[in-house]
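#struct-help
A.M.: can someone run this one for me? Single chain, 340 residues.
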Amino acid sequence: MVVNLLIREIQEEREQNLLSPYAAKSKETQGRTIPKSKCDIRTEFQRDRDRILHCKTFRRLKHKTQVFISPEGDHYRTRLTHTLEVSQIARTIARALSLNEDLTEAIALGHDLGHTPFGHAGESILNEVCPMGFKHYEQSLRVIELLERDGNGLNLTLEVRDGIINHTSKGKPHTLEGKVVQLSDIIAYINHDIDDAIRGRIIREEEIPRDCIEVLGKTFGERIDIMITDIIVNSLNKPDIIMSQEVEKSMKKLRKYMFEHVYIGSKAKKEEEKAQYILKQLYFYFVKNPNSIPKEFYAIYKTEKEDQEKIICDYIAGMTDRYAIKKYCELYVPSSWNIY
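D.P.: on it. Structure tokens below:
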């Protein structure tokens, strides 16, 4: 069937007429590393979102730790549910500010593709043992540009790649959509980690700093709503994404509280040393036995210029929690046997 009417062009025209003058327009994208003919139906940012959503790395996020390693219970967040919550928050803000919702969603869905098994504990140990270091946001870009699609990468637009590499608190996104995701990531993890920490009896609701509660709200829903509304009110018709000083100060204090009482040293994190031990042993095993890495994994590299240590990091970072444990058991734990 031939599509005579280019739906994409209608959507591009709609963006030009309806979006904020500060929004990124898909028709004005700076493009892809490898130029491709445009889709008749989807805009360039919609294509990016779909490429991320359908890639293997995205699916593996469902079995990667967010904060709590191997929690007992089905309601704790994983890296995938965190990503979806970031996407929902970011889309709400982008829609209210008349920004490009498709670009915002693509950045949000792809921002954590490079995360290791066992969350930031895994990232920390790979950064320690790998000579060239390891940062999950850099790995996210590496997944997009190289590792996905058998070494061909996802070939995403520059705007999406920029938002992903700059999504951390120290990053400086070049689009407002990227800035929206940057703040949405913080809003999401602070609030859902509080929710999980209370569920896991790591902290109690009454222990959360009272002055933060007075500003941001007592419940999960209230805090999310107040933070989102504050960003919208303070950023409307402005060339920046900002919060009020009062809300931003309270958010940062709440984040600091979570680092002091949940992220570092709490009983919820007591399994981290074991998880890091597993990844460290896997890393040094593959350093000594690089041929143990599956041949099909090596096939994604088109040249021989890659450092062996980086290839090992690529392999380990792509593992899910359960696959890393399984691989460790295969290599180091005796298996049962039977003479019959």
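A.M.: thanks! The radius of gyration is 22 Å.
D.P.: also worth noting: Residues 24 and 100 are 6 Å apart (CA to CA).
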